[in-house]
Amino acid sequence: MDNGGPSLTALITAYARAYHQIVDRPQIFTDPLAARLLGVTAEELAELGTPTTNYPGDKVHDRPRRLFFAARARFAEDAVAAAIAAGVRQVVILGAGLDTFAYRNPLPDLRVFEVDHPATQAWKHERLTAAGIDRPETLTFVPVDFETQTLAAVLESTGFKRTDPAVFVWLGVVFYLTPNAAHATLEYIAGQAQPVEVVFDYLQPANSDEDRAHQQARADRLAGVGEPVLSYFTPDDIAAQLRALGFTDLEDHSAPDLVTRYLDGSARFGGEPPRALRAIRILRASR
Questions:
Q1: Which of 92-96, 115-119, 153-157 is predicted most confidently?
Q2: Mean pLDDT in the chain?
Q3: I want to staple 12 with a disulfide (CB 3.0 to 4.6 A). Which of 56, 60, 213, 214 is the partner?
Q4: Could you tell me which of 287, 232, 282, 286 has the C-alpha nearest to residue 76?
Q5: At residue 87, does pLDDT exceed 50?
Q6: Distance CA 216, CA 88 (A)
Q7: Which H, E and C letters describe the chain, residue by residue?
Q8: Which residues of 113-151 are buried (b: 16+ CB within 10 A; e: fewer)?
Q9: What are the phi and psi torsion angles at 143 (to 5°)?
Q10: Within a 10 A sphere around the Cβ of 174, how many other Cβ atoms?
Q11: Rounded to 10 degrees, what is the CA torsion of 28, 281, 204, 178?
């Protein structure tokens, strides 16, 4: 990623979430701060949502992918809400990007830790100030450069309690890690005091020549902007890893199934999802 600002994929996700607020009905995920944090108006978002504009606009108009971004965020925050109801008071957002949960959190005793690259967090600080969005006392920024630092050392130096239950949210990140790095993070999460829960998404390898060609083309585009895809997992592979780490209650959904779950029959997915998107699964695991 560019050390002078946020990753391109973080921006695309944020723009897609903001555009979802104004164009998709029924709305899967509500985020009143998404556009404000980006510093764009509804009119500007509408202009971006045409297939003739450049990044991130050419991705924002991709409805199936946009709905998946909304659905995975809803799925994650539903899991966080359930954990809070059960008494959990620590939420860790890994690769937070322009996530806004911490600024919408109404609970004064819920600690939120946003973990991300220092460059992305510095840019987010600037955007929060420009947008007039206050940083709540319950939020802790945790800048981590994984090339020189470990999650354990940095997170635990900021007041995170390893001996207390927690829920981890890890969206749009695993694809860009090596399998060993992804496993190391899951291993760290598994060592948290019980109950612990993690919500994340991952890419499944294509299973046909045509799908492999589409998947490779998308991977080449991402590599061209400095964000190469480094890992793919089958559902069986990821389930075996999680169970070996002591996780149970695995809940794994394909992208279309997850979107359909939240549309609740009131609207259709909107055409065939892109082949790369069909390869995405989202999983929740509690220990």
A1: 92-96
A2: 87
A3: 56
A4: 282
A5: yes
A6: 40
A7: CCCCCCCHHHHHHHHHHHHHHHHCCCCCCCCCCHHHHHCCCHHHHHHHCCCCCCCCHHHHCCHHHHHHHHHHHHHHHHHHHHHHHCCCCEEEEECCCCCCHHHHCCCCCCEEEEEECHHHHHHHHHHHHHHCCCCCCCEEEEECCCCCCCHHHHHHCCCCCCCCCEEEEECCCHHHCCHHHHHHHHHHHHCCCCCEEEEEEEECCCCCHHHHHHHHHHHHHHHHCCCCCCCCCCHHHHHHHHHHCCCEEEEEEEHHHHHHHHHCCCCCCCCCCCHHHHCEEEEEEEC
A8: bbbbbebbbbbbeebbeeeeeeeeebbbbbbbeeeeeeb
A9: -75, 125
A10: 25
A11: 100
Alpha-carbon span 164 to 110, nearest angstrom: 12
Q: What is the mean pLDDT of residues 1-16?
A: 78
Residue-wise pLDDT for 45-83, tens only, equals 887 756 555 555 556 778 888 999 999 999 999 999 999
Task: Look up residue 110 and give its amino acid.
Answer: L
What tens digit of pLDDT does each residue of 13-25 get? 999 999 999 999 9
d(CA 261, CA 256): 9
pTM of the model: 0.91
Q: Which two tokens stand for residue 143?
A: 């800048």
Q: What is the pLDDT of residues 213-270, one digit of tens each?
A: 777 887 888 888 788 899 999 999 999 999 999 998 899 998 888 998 898 765 555 5
